[in-house]
Amino acid sequence: MTRRYPFVHHDVFTRQPLTGNGLVVFPDARGLADDEMQALARETNLSETTFILPRDPAVEREHGVKVRIFTVEEELDFAGHPTLGTAYVLHGQGGAETITLDLRVGRIPVTFARGAYGLLMGEMRQRDPDFGRIHEVAAAARATGLPREAFATDAPIQTVSTGLAFAVTPLSSLATLAQLRLDWSRAEDYLRTTDARFFYFVCRETTDPAATLHARMIFYNGEDPATGSAAGCCAAWALRHGVIASGQQAAIEQGLEMQRPSQIFIRGTVAQGRVTDVRVGGHVVEVMRGEVLL
Question: Which of 36, 43, 48, 223 is catalytic?
Answer without folding.
Answer: 48
